[in-house]
Amino acid sequence: MPTLTLIQSGPSSDAAYRTDLIRRYIAASGDEFAELALLAEAARYDKANPGQSLVDELLGAALGDVA
């Protein structure tokens, strides 16, 4: 399993949530429905919390060492 480093530009009260969602997305690798559900959850989060895109973080994390 790839290692994960969450990069935040500043302290965030929701860093644990973001990290958990990324870990769940990586763990769901290969399960299309689980991945889509997590991407939808991240999209709802992004809509409610403008700023750094959680969807982009999920997609980047899925690239692993390629990114």
Essential attributes:
60% helix; 3 helices; 67 residues; globular
Tell me about this structure:
The structure is a single chain. The protein is mainly α and 67 residues long. It has one domain (15-66). The protein is built from three helices and no strands. Helix 1 (15-27) crosses helix 3. The model has no long low-confidence stretch (mean pLDDT 83).
Quick rundown:
This protein is mostly helical and 67 residues long. It has three helices and no strands.
Overall 3D shape: globular
Biggest pleated-sheet summary: none
Rounded to an integer in angstroms, the radius of gyration calculated over CA atoms is 11 Å
Total of DSSP H or I helical runs spanning 4+ residues: 3
Low-confidence stretches: none
**Secondary-structure class:** mainly alpha
Mean pLDDT: 83
Please give the structural blueprint.
Layout: H1 15-27, H2 32-48, H3 54-63
